[in-house]
Specification:
alpha+beta; two-stranded parallel ribbon; two-stranded antiparallel ribbon; 4 strands; about 15% helix; about 25% strand
């Protein structure tokens, strides 16, 4: 614990969404987010990896910008 803090600092991880958590949709050579739910494909291993991060006490969020 850092001096002056009453609880340990939370650990966090920031994940990019397209191409990291889900398969990026490539149009005209550029990656795009899925336009529909049908296009959304979670990459293999992602649910288990997120579960391990959560179980290890990490706070996490993807880096969605809009």
């Amino acid at each position: 614990m850092r001096p002056g803090l009453t609880r340990p600092a939370a650990r966090a991880v920031f994940l990019d969404r397209d191409g990291v958590l889900n398969r990026a949709i490539v149009r005209d050579g550029r990656p795009y987010p899925p336009a529909t739910l049908e296009e959304l494909e979670i990459l293999p291993g992602v649910p288990a990896a997120l579960r391990r991060l959560h179980d290890a006490g990490f706070l996490f969020n993807d880096t969605i910008t809009g």
